[in-house]
Write a structure and sequence with these properties.
This protein is an alpha+beta fold and 113 residues long. It has one domain. Helix content is 24%, strand content 36%. It has 3 helices and 7 strands; from the N terminus they run ααβββββββα. It starts with 6 loop residues before the first helix and ends in a 6-residue tail after the last helix.
């Protein structure tokens, strides 16, 4: 994540707590686009396994905690189950200083010591 296209994603990660956030939560598979950061979450109390944080036009963040299931191959029939995205919690208009607190409220995971 070190090029000019990821400035927003790097800032979001910094506001979450940076490397301390990653170490404390176990979040991985970080991806980004021009205005958002996506990550895979470990098991948590919300049952979400992904989080997408998007910078919106109001200069606040939209958070989408969601669960992705399916896509598994049945070895007997060689059919793949459909991939299902289910929103667990969607929050809009979140300020940067609220990111860590809301993450902890939703997931039950602390972002720092």
């Amino acid at each position: 994540m070190n090029n000019n296209n990821n400035i927003v994603a790097m800032e979001i990660l910094k506001q979450l707590g940076g490397n301390k956030f990653l170490a404390m939560t176990g979040a991985k598979q970080l991806t980004y686009d021009n205005n958002s950061l996506n990550m895979k979450l470990p098991k948590n109390m919300s049952k979400s396994n992904y989080l997408r944080i998007t910078l919106n036009s109001m200069d606040t963040y939209d958070l989408r905690f969601y669960k992705v299931t399916g896509g598994k191959l049945n070895i007997k029939t060689f059919e793949t189950s459909p991939i299902i995205n289910k929103d667990i919690k969607v929050l809009n208009g979140i300020y940067c200083d609220q990111l860590q607190e809301i993450f902890t409220e939703v997931t039950g995971m602390y972002t720092s010591l």
